[in-house]
Each structure stands twice: as structure tokens, then as C-alpha cells.
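Need C-alpha cells for this chain, all 501 residues.
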Amino acid sequence: MNDSVQVLIVGAGSAGLTLAIDLARRGVAFRLIERSTEPFAGSRGKGLQPRTIEIFEQLGMIDAFLAASAPYPPIVNYGKGGEEPQRVRGEVEAKAGEPYPQSLMIPQWRTEAILRARLAELGGRVEFGAELLDFAETGGGVQAHVRSGDGEEIIACSWLVGTDGARSTVRKQLGIGYPGETGTFRMLVADLPVANLPADAWHRWPRAPGGQFALCPLAGTDSFQLSAELIDGEEPERSRESIQAMIAARTGDASLVAGELSWTSIYRVNFRLADSYRRGHAFIAGDAAHAHPPTGGQGLNTSVQDSFNLGWKLAAVLAGADEALLDSYETERRDIGAGVLDMSRGLLSAMTDKADMHRGRATLQLDLHYRASPLTAEHRAKPGGIRAGDRAPDAAILDPVGTAIRIFDLFRHPGFILLAVGGSAEIPASVDVHLRVVEVDRGPASYRDAGGELRWNYGLTGDCLLLVRPDGYIAVAADVDRADLIEDWFCRWIEAARAAA
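Here are the C-alpha cells for all 501 residues:
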């Protein structure tokens, strides 16, 4: 059997699901296949960083995630013998324009369940039990050989995206190197109820006999995530009885009672970054492109942001934009992946050497930017605090009828947005066809920055035009009378291929 589709996504974890949702809301025809026969059942990537939460708001899922999650609990470190436990709560100061200043805890299985539900609302689904066997470049696309319970088929697609994890079939068949190192640090991870342990703290025994040990309550469940450092060669039994014995030995508290395990895994730390994120008509994203230690909660979040960067670019090229737009995916995201990997390595070193679980602002992923991207153009004589390439902050404004709204309400629109702040120069109709123009303080029928929050949050020093990309980053910043620069950007990146046709 043969089938054709615009995009084939291989792997239905958080990265694949995010990409599928973004493509679905843009009307792109795709299939999402997953080799496993059922959804992932573990808590593994249990932290959502603020930037990822903002993306989920843009994708229409914020209420579901806020209802199913909770802020990270304070850490309680237990010493030896009669030492008093130390309670530590990490505080990170929020900046203006950041509506979700705290990381949220939610088991990975629940994150992916919410993503699948949103995908279903948009008419999409995951094809479980469908395995990519091989694929070949055809010149104008890819032919993929897939096997499922219904047999084997050839799927012809314009673009293939591998979001199929650290052991990625797509990456291996593309011949993309995955250099790095496998660390010596190993740990047992498990999800289970633990009786007689308060669920109001992340309980840690950093100097436990046998290695570091922790029990972290999982928001919205009656379970804890257990993590236990393992010595070289140690292969613990994963029965309830063995885990019960480990809890007693590591904590010294015989009152803690282990329940039945719902998921277990042996984790070995890896530090890896793919040599390339693209070959021809195929891409990799998420863990297929980078492997992080769990410290800092960066892996799942970086993966989601890979997909959110790629989705709008694929849709634009499928609609006729210059294929050079897709080159910016690797340019932008591989540098981010390398930086996050370095940060995660440092956090792991601090945890293993000093038992330090402090996480700074960098883990929130709000300050990541694309200032050096070929898609970025800062034209203002006096740029101010927020520049082209930066994340566009939130702000409270009034709509044309006086109703209070947020800038982020407007960002739920899947296309480009031009914020025209102040001034009176006309926005040409040729620009208007590409995007949604939001005029602020430009007359009685415009939006109003009544409290000055927009200008403050964006660090504006004068009237200006800000072209916001579909993924919430500023592509172009120009003085308010230079709409021609916005038009030039679209001619270069969006219209070039159409004009040449």
C-alpha cells in the first residue's frame, strides 16, 4: 500500500506531539507514527519550564496544563544521624512580561496525554505500533517504508522529521554523527506510592549509604518519583520488596512503606549533540538531536522548543516560501542545544560533587534568543532593552473597544504579528497580506497601551514596528516609518520562491 502526505513525523513523544499540533492548526497534512504500541507510562521528564508553558498557551492548552500541574515543592535535605533536615526553596526573580515565572511539575506521561488530547481536538492522532524501517531521498521528498499491525506500506512525504529519541532510527539512517560521552553516573528511577511520607516536599538524602537518594511527589497523583544513585555494575532488582528494602536502607526510616511500582528505568547520563539537524528533506529534533542529563529539567523543554521552531517554517515552505528558511532551524536550535547541554553538565557536576540542587534563571529558558540568526534584523537606531531575535514579552493592553487583554492572547494567532507601536505612518496593504497588524496607540480605533506596560516590558525608547514570528520571537525591529523593511523581510524569506516561480 502506498500513501502520500506533506510531513511524516517519526516518534510521538513530546517533541513529535508538539510538532503535530502545530502543523494541524496550520492545515498541514501529516502522519505521526510511533513504534511503541502504547503511550509512555513514566514520570521521567517531570518539569515544565516557563518558556515551554508559554508555548503550550500559544497552542491552546494552558488551562489543561495549569490544572494538571503544580509548582515545584521545596527541597528537604536530610543529613546523617540526628542532623536537622534543611528545607531549601529556590527562588528565581521574574522579569516584567513573564506570566509564568515558576517551573511546573507534571509527570511526563500526563504531559503527553494532554498533548494527545489537543491533537485529537485538531483532528489528528498517533499511529501506535507503526515502525519506520527505512527511507530514501527521492529528490523532491522522501519515501518511507513503514510496518504496522496492518502490514507494510510506503509513505511518500515532502518532509520527514525524526523525533524518535536518543536511539533515533532517522538520525542513524541519515548518517548523522551523535558525538559526546556516556557518563559514569547511573541511577534507578521509579514511580510508586510511598506511605507515611508528606507530599509537600522533594525529599533528598544526598549522602545516603549507597549513593544519593530522593523521593519527589508527583503533582496530581498519589505517587513519588524515586531516584537512587547506583554504583558501577549495580543492577538492582525492581520488585516492590527490593525497592522497600532500598528505601529503608537509604533513608534510615523504617516507617516508609513502598507501594506497587507503575514504572521503572535504569538511567545512565549521556552528553551528546548531533553533528547536524538536517539532511536533504529530513530533520531530527528533540532527543534525536541532543541528549541531556536530567539536572535542570532541560531535555523535554528543549525538545518542545525544537518542534515549535520547526513547525511554522515547514508550513511556510509547504505554502511556497524559500526553502532557505528551513536552514535556519539548525542554525538557531543547534546552538541552543549546545548551550543547554553545557548548562546541564554544570548542574550535574554541582549535584554530584556538592549535593547542590540550586537552579538559576538560565534553566527557565526565557532568555534564550536568536539575535545571530539570519532571520533576525534589528534596524532601530536606538534598540532599547528587547531586541530583534529576543523572545517577545507579554504585556497588558486594551483592545479597540476598551477590553483588557494580554499581548499573549494575540499570539495564539498561528501567523506573523506586526506590532505597530505609536506613530501614524500607514502600513502598506502589501505587508498586511502576510500577517495580522496590531496597531497600538495609533488612533481611536487602535489598541492602547494605557498603563504603559507594553513599552516598559519591551524596553521601547520610541515608536517602532516589531515583527513577531509565529514562535513568539521578534524577527524584525524597525523605526515606525520603515514598513518597507518589514516588506523586504517577507520578500526575502516568504515570497522569494513564489516570485521566482
